[in-house]
Specification:
Helices cover 38% and strands 24% of the residues. The chain has 160 residues and is an alpha/beta fold. The radius of gyration is 22 Å and the shape is elongated.
């Protein structure tokens, strides 16, 4: 079975979403379906069909989250055997300097489901994360991405 690495924050976010779906969204849509049914003819009842579609989405998302959590491998970079080794590993936050323009960039390496480039969280499977893993502060890495090749110097590796 394929393990699904995720950070503590990512696992908590999924647990929170699952709880909301089960305790708030699911009961609300069940109530909406019951109310729409009471209006009579279901074949032309748009409210009923919309509620059923919403129910399908909610049930699908619940199943998806439960499957991800069943294969989750929650990794805390602060308690990892590699913690404070200075090497880039899953879950760490990396301060980089773009060698092309000198701009500072900060990324946290996270699981695929947690990735959000706008928030500075990149997937462990992304080209930049794959290039960074195993490297240390002071190393320069070349990353080949769809937009071309970029060079980054690792300024600092933080286990937070």
């Amino acid at each position: 079975m394929k393990r699904n690495p995720m950070t503590l924050r990512g696992a908590e976010a999924l647990r929170s979403e699952l709880k909301r779906l089960k305790t708030e969204d699911r009961p609300r849509v069940i109530k909406a379906i019951a109310e729409a049914r009471s209006h009579g003819d279901l074949s032309e009842n748009a409210e009923y069909h919309a509620a059923r579609e919403q129910q399908g989405f909610i049930e699908g998302r619940i199943g998806e989250i439960e499957a991800k959590m069943s294969t989750a491998e929650i990794i805390d970079p602060t308690s990892s055997p590699m913690a404070n080794s200075g090497r880039v590993t899953f879950g760490v936050t990396v301060d980089l300097e773009d060698q092309n323009d000198g701009k500072p960039i900060t990324y946290q390496i996270v699981g695929e489901d947690e990735a959000d480039i706008k928030s500075g969280r990149i997937s462990i499977t992304s080209p930049i994360a794959r290039a960074l893993v195993g490297k240390s502060a002071g190393d320069v890495v070349d990353v080949t991405a769809p937009g071309g090749t970029h060079s980054y110097e690792i300024v600092k590796v933080r286990y937070i």
